Amino acid sequence: MMIGEKVGDYSGKVKLQVTPLSGGESVERELVVKGRVRAAISFAGRSLNSEKGLDLGLIRRGKEFKRSLIVRVRDETGHRMDVLDVKPKSLRATLETTKVPGAYRLTLVVPADSQVEMFDREEQHGYVQVGDPENQAFHNWLPLYGAIVNPATIISIAELYRSETILKFKNRC
Fold first, then answer.
1. Which of 23, 85, 91, 137 would you call most buried, defined as having the most Cβ atoms within 10 angstroms of its Cβ?
2. Are 108 and 95 in contact (CB under 8 A)?
């Protein structure tokens, strides 16, 4: 997002003073203006929450994990786009152009040899930042939530969920 650009709803008043070309008295009018400023760089994809970010879920360690989404650039000044930063550092991110002008494919990869890592809390989440490396003011970032866990952990969580569900069902009968 560019510095100084406020994203979101706006409203205000505009005063216009119009003088007819043929001469005559000027007329002054006040107009109410409402609208929405969209981010110059935005993200789109499945499992993407516009307020929270991207939930990657539980990622099984030992198997490569890959997720792609679209980055849209609403700016026609020819910015060069790239991945500027990513957290956790075990995550790899690449940005590729597509056939659609202003649209890029952002691919996030968690390598199979990644270590166990939690980034699933509001105060401890990951992120990917994209923008123009030559213009620090032109960027945006996407929060990432997930956890890289051992396969046994996923099975344990699934078994726990199943046992709690069975107990709830038995208690209803």
1. 91
2. no
2 contact partners, CB below 8 Å, separation of at least 6: 40, 137, 138
Q: Is the dihedral of CA 82, 87, 89, 93 positive or negative?
A: negative
pLDDT category of residue 162 using cuts at 50, 70 and 90: low
Q: Between the CA atoms of 92, 97, 102 and 105, what dihedral angle is there, to the nearest 10 degrees? A: -40
Between CA 56 and CA 53 the distance in angstroms is: 10
The model's pTM: 0.71
* 164 φ, ψ (degrees, to nearest 5): -65, -40
What are the structural domains of the chain?
Answer: 8-37 (no CATH), 41-171 (2.60.40)
Residues present in the chain in total: 173
Do 83 and 95 contact (CB within 8 A), yes or no? yes
Query: Beta strands 53-60 and 48-49: pairing type?
Result: antiparallel
Closest CA to 128 of 75, 79, 81: 81
State the maximum Cα–Cα separation within the chain, in Å, rounded to a whole number: 87
Distance, in Å, from the CA atom of 14 to the CA atom of 34, rounded to the nearest integer, reads 11
